[in-house]
TrEMBL record:
The lineage of its organism: Eukaryota, Metazoa, Chordata, Craniata, Vertebrata. It is found in: Early endosome; Secreted. The keyword Translocase does not apply. This is Glutamine amidotransferase-like class 1 domain-containing protein 1. GO terms for molecular function: glyoxalase III activity. GO terms for biological process: methylglyoxal catabolic process to D-lactate via S-lactoyl-glutathione.
Amino acid sequence: MLFISLNNISCGINTKTIEMSAKPTCLIVASASPQGVSAASFHQSFSLCSSVFNLQTATPGGKPIDFVGVDESTARWVQDFNVKPYATPAKLESIDGARYQALLLPDCPGALNDLAHRLSAPHPHTLHLPTKTCLCSGTRSVRAVLCHRGPEVDFSGYSLTGPSVFELVRRPDFANLPLVVEDFVKDSGGSYTASQEDAVHVVIDRHLITGQNMQSTSLAVNNLILLSNAK
C-alpha cells in the first residue's frame, strides 16, 4: 500500500487518517491556465472518486483551480468545494508520482496550454509516474496525460481516444490550439478512435483510460475505479 506524503506539501490533509485507511490514493491534476477546468467534469470525477480513493489535487505552481462552465447544477458544489482543504492544490512540481496508484485528469480546457508541458519529460518539473499507474483522462486533458512517459512519446500498441476534429472545431480558439489529439496519437505510434460528436466513448487499454468528451467523464472514471480495485 502506498500513501500520500505531505512533506513540503500544504494541502490540509490529515496524514494519520490517510495511513489508517485502506483506500488507494489518487491524484487529481488540474490546469491552472486562464482557460480553466470544466466544472461539470471535475464535479463528476471528484464525486465518484471521493468514496473510493484518498484524493489530493495538484496544479502547476499550486495555483487555485479556476472552474469554467459553472451552471445551476454545479454552482452550489463549486461553492462548497472552494472552502474545503483540498481546494488548495499542491504544487504539481513537488509531487512524487510514485506515491499514487491512480492519476486522474478531468476535462480541462486549459490542459493543452500548461499541463501538456508540466507532464512532459523535457520539462524540468516533470511528474514521473510508475509505468503501471492507472491513468484516466478526459477529452482536452488527454494530451497531457500521454506525455508523462518520456521525451520520445511512443504509444505503439496503445489505443486511445480524445476529442475529434469535429468537436474541436467548435472551440473559439481552435485555430490557436497547439495540437490536435488525433494527429498527436497517430504521430506517437498509437491507434486513435472516436465516435460521433458528443457521444459517450471511452477506450480502456491496460492501465490507460481515455474519454472522448465531457459526456464520457462518468464512464471513464467508473472504469478507473474498477481498474484500481482489480489491481
